[in-house]
Amino acid sequence: MADSTAPVGKQYPPLTYVVGREKIREYARAVGETDPLYLDLAAARAAGHADLVAPPMFVVVYASEPLGRAMFDPEVGIDFPRLVHGGQEFRWERPLIAGEEVTTVVTLDEVRQLESANLTYYVFGHRSTVAGELVSTGVWTNIVRGAA
């Protein structure tokens, strides 16, 4: 089961990611996105954007490293061989545009034990901003199975 001393409420240092035009294209192609706003600079500009638009799920690109830092924090105490993905929820305030610098802060929001099933839930939240403006939030749930 979970270490009862896991630092619920701990906020991790912010990490800034520069959204790159080619990273947007690479991500869009990798996940099968075909919207020209993600791939064609002329189309994005014709639609009123300064540069390519990042697909909504690009959030996993800029939030993964800050989340990883939190998850691998020894104080949290996740037993990785027993970890399974529990879920993710996101809210977007506006799309990101190539060239923007997005800053993400992750917090350990909850550690909950479900003793009847021998499971521990680790819930992390993220807030991402550009120049202080909120662009996305997320909840990342990880489940650690207890010893058999």
UniProtKB/TrEMBL annotation:
A GO molecular-function annotation: (3R)-hydroxyacyl-[acyl-carrier-protein] dehydratase activity
FAS1-like dehydratase domain mapped to chain residues: 8-135
Classification via Pfam families: FAS1_DH_region
Annotated InterPro entries: FAS1-like_DH_region (IPR039569), HadA-like (IPR016709), HotDog_dom_sf (IPR029069), UPF0336/Enoyl-CoA_hydratase (IPR050965)
GO biological process: fatty acid biosynthetic process
PANTHER family: HYDROXYACYL-THIOESTER DEHYDRATASE TYPE 2, MITOCHONDRIAL, HYDROXYACYL-THIOESTER DEHYDRATASE TYPE 2, MITOCHONDRIAL-RELATED
Name of this chain's protein: FAS1-like dehydratase domain-containing protein
Organism listed in the record: Patulibacter medicamentivorans
Classification of source organism: Bacteria, Bacillati, Actinomycetota, Thermoleophilia, Solirubrobacterales
